[in-house]
Each structure stands twice: as C-alpha cells, then as structure tokens.
Specification:
The protein is mostly helical. The chain has helices at about 5-10, 15-20, 35-45, 50-55, 65-75, 85-100, 105-110, 115-135, 145-165, 185, 200-209. The protein is elongated and about 55 Å long. The protein binds a DNA duplex through helix 1, helix 2, helix 5 and helix 8.
Length: about 210
DNA sequence: AAAGAGTCCAACCGCGACCAG
DNA sequence: CCTGGTCGCGGTTGGACTCTT
C-alpha cells in the first residue's frame, strides 16, 4: 500500500489530457514533476503567500488555490508521508474526540502531517475503527470533566460573541478585544509536558468507558 | 485471466473569514 | 463602512490501485 505513492508519481497521459481540456486552458488534475519544480522555484523567490501571484509568476496554468494546496500537502519541507505510527494514530483519535473535524487543528499537533492527510486517514481507517469501538462500548454514561467543559464553553462563548459583534472593532486586529482568545493557542499542547497531557488521555478514556 | 467491488488519496469545490483600499 | 480580492478550511469527488470472486 505504501508503495503506490511512488507509482502515482508517474503522470497518466489520460489524466494529462483531462487536465488540459478543463476550464479555458487551466490545468487540473494531477500535478506533473515539471509543475512541482516551477511551483517550488516560485515559492523560493516569492515565499509561500500571494498564491495567485505565484501561480502566474511560475507560469503555471493553475489557480492560486491549487498551488497552495499542492505546496501545503506535498511540496512543503519536512512533510512526512505515509506510515502513520500507532502513537500518531492514537493522538489523532484523541484529538478528534476533543476537536471534531477540525483537521487543521489536529494536523497542527502532528508535526509534518497535513490536514488533508489526516482527514483522508480518518475517513479511510479511523472512522470505521472508532465506530466499531463505539458500538462495543455503547451505554457509557456521560461523565464530567471540568477542564474540557470549561474550554468548550469558552470556545462557544467566544464564537457567539464574535457573531454577535460581527466586525465591530474596526480592522479587527487580533488581540485587541477584551477576550483575546486564540483557538490555536488554546489547543497548543506543544509546551505542555507529558504529565499535563494526561487530562486528554483521561478524558478520552472516560468516553471509551 | 478477467471483471467487479472496495480502498485510498490527491485534488477540486464551495463557503466563510480576513484584510487592504 | 463597503467591497473585492485572497486565503484557509472542511466536505466531496475522481480515478488509480488492490483485493476478491
């Protein structure tokens, strides 16, 4: 299974044909090595932002969105691909319990992994596993966990606050509100030692029953 | 060996948020 | 404040690959 990544590197001529036929000359479908190279070169010069500019400067017939996706999921340095370890798998399951389908947040806790990869891995492997497990342990009473509840409540309130106020503070600069709350920071466990992380384990284990 | 079913993953799509002018 | 451009996210799709019959 892991080997077919390398097989996929070769671009199927049929795919190429399809690519070229779509949307007024815009390339779609699988990326070629040539396109990858051009994109990487452009990003080296302009940095990983202004994707529309990058797309045109690189001479790629791709939209900025597509370039960004390719970079984020494939070309970015330090990307780990395939072979998700048991530890990583366990972490994904736990984080998914806490965060739901917040793939980018989950990916942020797994260095080198992309949200797309985790989402795919979840959909193809873990969701089934978890469903089976849940079926087995059905009937587990809901138990309290003050810390996670507090966190969830805080998130809810902030979200409600935001929608209520809209963009009332001109510019809406981050951090200038009374409730300077950053979801990403909120779930940033990177500075917590393993002991502190125990609350996640305990919480998720409680759910397992 | 061939056909059909199932699996996996790269890429696309639509939407909402953000931001500069 | 409004508007258009851009970005990022999550859901979905298409097709290559693998397994089963």
């Amino acid at each position: 299974m892991d080997d077919h990544e390398s097989v996929k590197e070769e671009v199927n001529p049929a795919v190429m044909l399809k690519n070229q036929s779509a949307e007024k000359g815009a390339n779609r479908g699988s990326w070629t090595d040539e396109e990858d190279r051009k994109l990487a070169e452009a990003i080296e010069i302009y940095g990983p932002k202004r994707w529309k500019t990058i797309a045109s400067k690189a001479g790629l017939k791709r939209c900025g969105k597509s370039c960004r996706l390719r970079w984020m999921n494939y070309l970015r340095p330090n990307i780990k691909r395939g072979n998700i370890s048991d530890q990583e798998e366990d972490l994904i399951v736990r984080l998914h319990k806490l965060l739901g389908n917040r793939w980018s947040l989950i990916a942020g806790r797994l260095p080198g992994r992309t949200d797309n990869e985790i989402k795919n891995y979840w959909n193809s492997h873990l969701s089934k596993k978890v469903h089976q497990k849940e079926k087995q342990s059905k009937g587990t009473a809901e138990m309290g966990c003050s810390r996670i509840r507090k966190k969830r409540k805080a998130m809810k309130e902030v979200k409600a606050d935001r929608t209520r106020e809209g963009n009332s503070s001109s510019g809406g600069a981050p951090g200038d509100s009374k409730l300077s709350f950053d979801v990403d920071d909120f779930f940033d466990f990177s500075n917590e030692d393993p002991m502190t992380l125990e609350w996640i384990s305990k919480f998720t284990e409680m759910d397992d029953g």
